Fold:
Amino acid sequence: MIDFDKIREDVMEWPCSQVLEAQISLMDGSPLFDIEASSICNLECNFCPRSKIIRKNNFLDPDLFKVLCNWLPENAVVMFSGLGNPF
Ligand code: SF4
Structure:
């Protein structure tokens, strides 16, 4: 199990130059794209800010998704997330 608190404590002790170096090495990796497939959700998780956001509930247009797929670089990492639940 990953001890995120320990990692956070360790990183807080790093000098700024080491933090910057780590951030730059992350940017050298595959670009990450976060795509929201839906803004609709039938759940009400208590930590979720959905109810405070005023916008149309909708699904990502499949044609727009095709355009996005053609536009994404080959090494892109796509994460489907956002404030909706397409399932
Ligand atoms: S969008 Fe995600 S976090 Fe928010 S209520 Fe739905 S499932 Fe929960």
Remarks:
- Residues 41, 43-45, 48, 50, 83-85 surround iron/sulfur cluster (CB under 6 Å).
- The CA atoms of residues 38 and 59 lie 4 Å apart.
- Residues 4-80 form one domain.
